[in-house]
Amino acid sequence: MNNSTAAPSSKPRAGSSQPSEASFKRKRGVFQKDSSVQHMMYGFGDDPNPLPESVALVEDIVVEYVTDLVHKAQDIASKRGKILTEDFLYLIRKDAPKLNRCTELLSMNEELKQARKAFEVDEEKLATIE
Q1: What is the CB-side half-sphere exposure of residue 118 using CA atoms within 13 A?
Q2: Is residue 1 classed as helix, strand or coil in its secondary structure?
Q3: Number of continuous H segments (helices) and E segments (strands) in the chain
Q4: How far apart are CA 125 and CA 122, in angstroms?
């Protein structure tokens, strides 16, 4: 199917800055350099070496989803002037598995920050003792 004749899948919103079709196409191949999409597809049950067309399609879907999510978060945060993590959590609030996974990853990130901070303090103490 030719994308130039198909209607855009996302709803255009008044006052929002939607990327043009040309700028979206320039983002193609962002994840293919390190084959992370290919590894993700394999992790979710696909063939270890999926067709390049399949990888490109999944990448296009992911880039479109993330771009749309960021634009929606930007619309929410427009009064504040900057996007916060809570804006994304607000957008996915009705999708329980995504929300749970995001909160889990955010808490894990906070735990890792605290562990790194404690580790750096211990190294500084050891350096002053020696």
Answers
A1: 6
A2: coil
A3: 5, 0
A4: 5
Query: Contact at 8 Å (CB) between 58 and 39?
Result: no
pLDDT tens across 57-102, in order?
A: 999 999 999 999 999 999 999 988 899 999 999 999 999 999 999 9
Q: For residue 43, what are its two tokens?
A: 């992790």
Candidates 34, 61, 37, 65; CA nearest to 50 is 37
- Angstrom distance (rounded) from CA 17 to CA 29: 23
- For the entire predicted model, the pTM comes to 0.64
Residue 58's closest CA among 71, 75, 83, 39? 39
Contacts of 60 (CB under 8 A, 6+ apart): 28
